[in-house]
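Quick one: structure for this chain?
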Amino acid sequence: MIFILARAATYSALFISLLLVFLPVRILSSSGFTRPLGTGVWQVAGMILAATGAVLALTCILSFVFIGKGTPAPFDPPRRLVVRGPYRLVRNPMYLGAGLALAGAALFYRSIALLGYACLFLLTTHLFVVCYEEPTLRRIFDRDYDAYCKRVGRWWPKH
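Got it. Here's what it folds into:
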């Protein structure tokens, strides 16, 4: 279990460092944005949104490790289908958490460029989910995944 946790932490740190820290910082610096001088309504809203997204994504990573016995990385996926925790509400909460964190950063900095990056991130993850992830999960978990898809929405909870 510790080896799985270490792998998940490593892969997640690389993903977060590149897509959620390095690229947003590059976007902000190339757009001429600097840190806000004070903490206003936009910054507080951004921090709340970003923290909510981060907690959601971290919960998903831990669910993959402890329930799925794997990591979030496509080349080292969970061995069991994860349908508990945030995954009982939507099928892709980790991507939603990352998107919320990016949107929170865009609010914090009041950056249209960063908001555009957040939208591009969500579009790219949608295409990845539809073109790679779902077919792979369907192949691996077969009827269990099909039943899960009928119960749980891809991006929005089903009623």
